[in-house]
Amino acid sequence: MKIDFHIHVKLSKKTNFDIDHFNSILDEAVANGLDAITLTEHFNTHRFEDVYGTLDRMFTCNNHYYDRDGFKIFTGMEVDVAEGGHILVSGPKDKLLEIRAILEDHTSLDHFIGLERLFELCEPRGMMVIGGHPFRESNHLYHVDRELLKRFDAFDLNGKDLHEIGIQENIAKVLTLGEELGVPVVAGSDAHQMFQVGCVHNTFVGNFETIAELKEAVRAGAYKRVLSPSLHLQVRAANLVKKLLKKKTEVV
């Protein structure tokens, strides 16, 4: 199975969910040989409920993933925490939406939930919790208490950061942090539209039906991270197109 653990389905937090935009992302993922993605739209995006509400009407879901002609869309979201980081939470859809409902009062900057409390919500519900882009200047995690960092199921080797920080420098930083804490590192493109899809992904032997199974495989180290040779071009193109499209589509 080839999977990207960090995919957005909207151009930005301020845009409406558009099924055609979403399908263009999936088409590109298939074209790049992926078998699955984890849907990690921001938990405080404009009309978050439209994302899962629309997908419920469009595709079948077994509470673990939506099926689009054999392509798997595992359910998840990206959560801001009080410490300043971004956390990728994925798992059974009913449990995910349960957590999202609890977070309704924590969607603004002044009220973001603490990381420890988020773990307390996620761990008993069997969620996979990934520390997003731990060395990104604007939303880093490396400064957080080490005992908290050890609770992550993985850290995110992020496509955008590989471009902006530098491939070798970012790999060194994230892998060193993971090795020091005993936390695996998985790849996520952080794509918001089609051009960035496929710049990084993970390859597993075998197929998986649940996030729990994927989490076990990650813990066992039974996967490889793959970086596209055109990563820099893909991210540059994505950044340019995103800026142009946001001017036309953002909700005021």
From TrEMBL:
InterPro entries listed in its UniProt record: PHP_dom (IPR004013), Pol/histidinol_Pase-like (IPR016195)
Ranges where the PHP domain occurs: 4-115
Name of protein: PHP domain-containing protein
